[in-house]
Amino acid sequence: MRRVRYHENGGPEVLRVEEADVPGPGAGELLLRTEAVGVTLPVVRKVREGGLPLPAGLGGEVAGRILAVGPDVTGFAPGDRVTGLCFGDAYADRSLLHSAMASPVPDGASATDAVALVRCGLVARGAYEAARPAEGESVLVTAAASGVGHLAVQIAGARGAGRVVAAVGSAAKADFVRSLGADEVVTYEELAGPAPLPFAPVDIVLDAVGGALLSPALAALAPGGRLVAYSSGGGTVDAYDLLVGAKSVIGFQMALIARHHPALMERWRLELWEEFAAGRLRPRVHAELPLTEAAEAHRIIESRVNLGKVVLRPV
């Protein structure tokens, strides 16, 4: 089989396409013929910054058809189409997916639809629900053109937000996020600038950026507002800023929902597919690239030019 690995940390240039033996599925595992792989910023950062023993494979959302099942697998069989989060060699034309992480791909949906919708959609939906939104409240979504952010804009609008403000890194993305239903668009420079905000304060911020943008995002909240942080970008806030505006910061991590509330995650997943089938939720794909162009996929993500999801097609 073909897979992509890296033997040293660095930029996209360290990714190598290799030949390897096809692995056999272990207990609870599914062997997939991988048809689509979702590329994410945390994985791109891990390649550059380190954290795993080398050489290392790359994880990510995968979708494909089951070729074989390991011992103790129930509910899945060879020939089924599934999607899920692979922690091993996701960048490969054959991948191992634990059955606990797998979910069916419905008829009428492609593998690309699956990797663009499910994991990103679960994060977007979960982050929005973590804010405990009330009908008609206003929402600011940072990284609004990203794989998660572009779905968060749609989910907020579809689930009753009175106003959705999209924050993006470049004004060139404004038309894209407006096409998703954003009522207003602001650039990071405008959000963090010394001038008054170009929009009225909001009740909820869904922040996928963190870092230097965290404080400006908090300042965009109206009194009593809630900021949901689901970024790997870090950042700090001043407790006094929370006190004087009676504001809250809520951390959200999808892995905790998966471990402790699997029934809730399954309900959200089914609702995502229902909204997709009804045309109310449309994942957008910036680029579909062959596995051999994994480095280019990482360059796109690092440059922040993507409008929606970046997907690799191994086969």
From TrEMBL:
Keywords: NADP, Oxidoreductase. GO terms for cellular component: cytosol. GO terms for molecular function: mRNA 3'-UTR AU-rich region binding; NADPH binding; quinone reductase (NADPH) activity. InterPro entries: ADH-like_C (IPR013149), ADH-like_N (IPR013154), ER (IPR020843), GroES-like_sf (IPR011032), NAD(P)-bd_dom_sf (IPR036291). Pfam families: ADH_N (PF08240), ADH_zinc_N (PF00107). PANTHER family: QUINONE OXIDOREDUCTASE PIG3-RELATED, QUINONE OXIDOREDUCTASE-RELATED. This is NADPH:quinone reductase. The lineage of its organism: Bacteria, Bacillati, Actinomycetota, Actinomycetes, Kitasatosporales.
